[in-house]
C-alpha cells in the first residue's frame, strides 16, 4: 500500500477520499488462486447447474427410503397379475411409474437406484483415486527405479482402452459380483490418477516455492506432505469429479455386456438399463429411458462441475 | 527420427510382454483356474482331470509359461474352447467386420468433428456454439449402447429407414474377397452389395462415432480458441493477410495439432465402443467375439488373443499418430 | 500535415460480469513523417492498447474504441475491416514484444516473410521468396537463403526479432509501430536491435512509434516523447527537454529511479511509492495523486487538464516540478 499517511499537504477529507478511491481500485489483488477459483466458480452458471444436479442426486440417494413409495425388492400381486413376456403394466394407482419385469414398483427402484449408483460411482472413483494417488505420489516423490517401475506399470494398463480393460478384468474373474464391477472400473482409473499426481509433483519439484522450502532446509517428508501434495490435490479432485461420470457409464456398459452384478434384487441404474431396459425395450421403453436419462443427467452434472472447476483453476483464465 | 521409432517399438514389445505375463498369471491364479471356470463347479473329477491334461495345466507353471510365450511369439494362440477352431482363424474371420465399422466411425467423427468444432469456435458464445457444447456434453454422457437401441428403435422399428441388424441382407448374393463387404462390392463390381452393406453400416457407425465425434468437436473448438489468442495470429492480422489465408494457413494448421493426438487416443474408445455397438446391432465382429467368449463359459484362449490384439492396435495407432505429429509439427521433427 | 494524428482515442474494456475499465482515456498525439515518437509508461498504463487500437487489432467484442486515428487523410477507425486489412502491413507495419510467440511455429520463416509481399504487392510465391531473402539479408540475418526454410524455433531470439522487423518493413510502410521490441531480449541483443531499427527508419524515412517502459530506449531513439499514466498522456516533450527538465512528478520520478553513474554511490535510488494499481479514477482528480510527492488539494476533485507548455510540449499537472531558472 502507498504511504498516504505521509502526505501532509492535503486536507483531511481529500486524504480520506484518496484512500477510499485507491482501496476500490486495488481491491482485486492478493487473492489466492483457490479462493479466486472458488469465487469464479460461484459466478459460473455452468458450474452451478452441475452442482445443483449433483446435489439433487445426493439428496435422493441419501433419503431414498423417505422418498420412495415402496420397498424396491417387493413384488406386488396387483402388478404381477398383469405381467407377461410382452406386457409390463404401466402407471397405476400407487405405482406412478408402473411395474418392472418382475412386478416390483419401478418408481421405488429408480429412487433406490440413485443410492446404488452413487455407491458404485463413489467407491469405484475413490478406490481408483486412492491407489492412483499413492502410486503417483511415490513415483513423484521418490523417483529413481521405483518411478520407472510404476510408470511402466501404468503404461501397461493404459495400453488397453479403459472400458476394454474393465471388461477384461471382470471377464478374468471367475464370476461377477457388484464388487468385481467396482474394482474393475476403479483399476482402470488408477493409472490416470497416478500419472496426474506424478506429473503435478514433478512440476512442483522444480517450482519456486518448493525450491525455497528446500533451500530453507525443510525436511523432504514435510516438503512432500505440506507443500507438494496439497497443491496437487486440486487437480486430483477435478479429475475425480470427471471420473465419477465415466465410472457410472462404464458400470452400465458392463451390466449391458452381462458382466454386471447378478443379484436380481439390486436396483442400480446401470443394471436396470443394461439388463431389463434393453431386454424389454420394445415392450416398455420407459424401463430403458428412465434409468438412461438418470445416468445422462448425473454424468452430465459431474462433467459440468468437473470441467468448470478445471477451467476455474487454470491460471490462464485469471483476470 | 529412426531412434524415436525404435525406442517406441521396443516400448511396444516390453508392454506386450508385461501384458501377456499379467494375463497369463491372472488366469492361473483364479480359484480353481480356468478349468473350473470352464466346467463349472459340478463337473466330475474325471472330466476335470481330462481337461486339465488336455490344456497342459498339469505341468509346472514355468513350463506352461515358457510354452505360452513361445506360442504367442509364433502367433499360435491355441484353439477356441467354444468351437475348437484355431484362435487365429476365429479372429481373422471377425476382424474385417470390426475394422469396417471402426473406419466408418472414425471417418464420421473426423469428417464432422473438425468442421463442427471449428464453426463452434468461430461463433464462440453465440447460440450455435452453446448448442454445440450442450449436444457434445450429452454425447459424452449418454451410454452408447442405449443410444444404439434408441436409434434402432426410431429408425428401424417406427420408421423403416435402416436395417435393424447385421452387416448385409441375408440372401444377398455377394462375393467375399477381403471380408470388407463395402470394399468387396466395389472390387467385384457388385454395387448393389456395396450399397446394401453401406446401408447396414450407417446406424452402427453413427452409434460408434458418437463419443469420438463429441470429443473431437470439443478439442477442436478449444484448440481453435487457444490458437486465436496466440501472438502469431495477431502478427498475421498486423500483416493485413486475408481472413481466409489466416484461417487456413495460420489457425487451422496449428489448431489441428492437439486434435491429431486426440484422434489417436480415440481409437481406444472405438475399440471399446465396438464391443457395445456390435452387440446392439448383432454385427458379428471382434466385439461380438469378445461378448460371446465371455458369456457361455469363458473362452480364455480367444480372450487372451483379443486382449493382446487390442493392445497392439491401440499402441500402433498411437505410434503412427506420434509419427504423423512429427511431420506436421517442425518443433518435434528436429528433436 | 502529420502522418498520424491520434485524437481523443479511448478504449473501454467491457467484459461480461466485470465493471467497464477505461484502458486508454482520451489520448492525443501526432507523428510527423519520418519522425520517431515514444509512448512511455509502466505496464498497464495503456500504451500497448493504444498501439493495438491504432492498428485495429483489438478484438471487436469486449472493447469499445472511440476517437479518431487519422492516418494521412483517412480515419482508420472509420474504415471497414476489409479496407483496414488492405492497409495493415502495407502502410503501417508493427513489431511485437515476444518474437518467439509472434512467429507462427509451424511455418517456415521464408513463407512468413513472403506472404505479406504476396498479399500487398501481388507477387508470386517465387518472387516473394526471392525478395524475402533480400529482406532477411537487410536486417542482418546471416545466410538468409538457408534461413528461408528454417522454422522460428531454430533461430535465436535476436534473429527472430530481426525477422519480425523484416516482415513489418517488407512493404516499405510509412509508419512502423514497435511495441516493446527489445523487452524480451538479452541486454546485448537489445542494443543491436535498437541500432538496426534506428538505421532502417533513417534510411527509409519511415516514421516510428516506439512503445516502451525503458527510458534508455527513449533517450537513444525518440524525437518526441509522450508519457502515459493510467490511460492518459501526462506529459509530452522533446527528448532533450524531457530528460533535462521533466515537469510532471511522475516523469521526474521515473528519471530519478534510473541508476546513474554520475551521482554519489552512497545516494539512495529514488523510488515511486506504491504501484500502478494504487490510482484514483481520472474524473475524481489526478490518477497519480496517491503516489505523488507533490500532491495538493487541487489534485483531487476534478480531472486535471492537459495543457500546452511554452516549449511546444504539454503537461497534465497542477503542481509541476519547478523549472530551473536560467542564470
From TrEMBL, chain A:
Transmembrane segments: 47-68, 118-146, 153-173, 179-197, 229-249, 287-306
The keyword Transcription regulation is assigned to this record: no
InterPro entries the UniProt entry points to: BP-dependent_transpt_permease, MetI-like, MetI-like_sf, OppC_N
This protein's GO CC annotations: plasma membrane
Cellular compartments annotated: Cell membrane
An individual GO BP term: transmembrane transport
Main localization (coarse): membrane
Keywords: Cell membrane, Membrane, Transmembrane, Transmembrane helix, Transport
PANTHER family reported in the protein's UniProt record: D,D-DIPEPTIDE TRANSPORT SYSTEM PERMEASE PROTEIN DDPC-RELATED, OLIGOPEPTIDE TRANSPORT SYSTEM PERMEASE PROTEIN APPC
Name this protein carries in UniProt: ABC transporter permease
UniProtKB/TrEMBL annotation, chain B:
Highest taxon in the source lineage: Bacteria
Domain (ABC transmembrane type-1): residue spans on this chain: 95-321
Keywords attached to this entry: Cell membrane, Membrane, Transmembrane, Transmembrane helix, Transport
Gene Ontology annotations for the cellular component aspect, listed alphabetically: plasma membrane
Membrane spanning stretches: 9-27, 101-121, 133-151, 197-217, 255-276, 305-328
InterPro entries according to UniProt: BPD_transp_1_N, MetI-like, MetI-like_sf
Subcellular location: Cell membrane
Membrane topology note: Multi-pass membrane protein
Chief place of localization: membrane
CDD domains to which the protein is assigned, alphabetical: TM_PBP2
GO annotation terms (biological process): transmembrane transport
Family designation: Belongs to the binding-protein-dependent transport system permease family.
Record protein name field: Peptide ABC transporter permease
Automatic annotation (TrEMBL), chain C:
SUPFAM superfamilies: P-loop containing nucleoside triphosphate hydrolases
GO biological process entries: peptide transport
Subcellular localization: Cell membrane
Membrane topology of this protein: Peripheral membrane protein
Domain ABC transporter: 6-255
GO MF, one example: ATP hydrolysis activity
Superkingdom of origin organism: Bacteria
Keyword terms: ATP-binding, Cell membrane, Membrane, Nucleotide-binding, Transport
Cell membrane in keyword set: yes
Cellular component terms per the entry's GO annotation: plasma membrane
InterPro entries: AAA+_ATPase (IPR003593), ABC_Ni/Peptide_Import (IPR050388), ABC_transporter-like_ATP-bd (IPR003439), ABC_transporter-like_CS (IPR017871), Oligopep_ABC_C (IPR013563), P-loop_NTPase (IPR027417)
PROSITE patterns found in the cross-reference section: ABC_TRANSPORTER_1, ABC_TRANSPORTER_2
Gene3D superfamilies reported in the protein's UniProt record: P-loop containing nucleotide triphosphate hydrolases
Alphabetical list of NCBIfam families matching this protein: oligo_HPY
Similarity comment text for this entry: Belongs to the ABC transporter superfamily.
Name this polypeptide is given: Dipeptide/oligopeptide/nickel ABC transporter ATP-binding protein
Organism this protein belongs to: Actinoplanes auranticolor
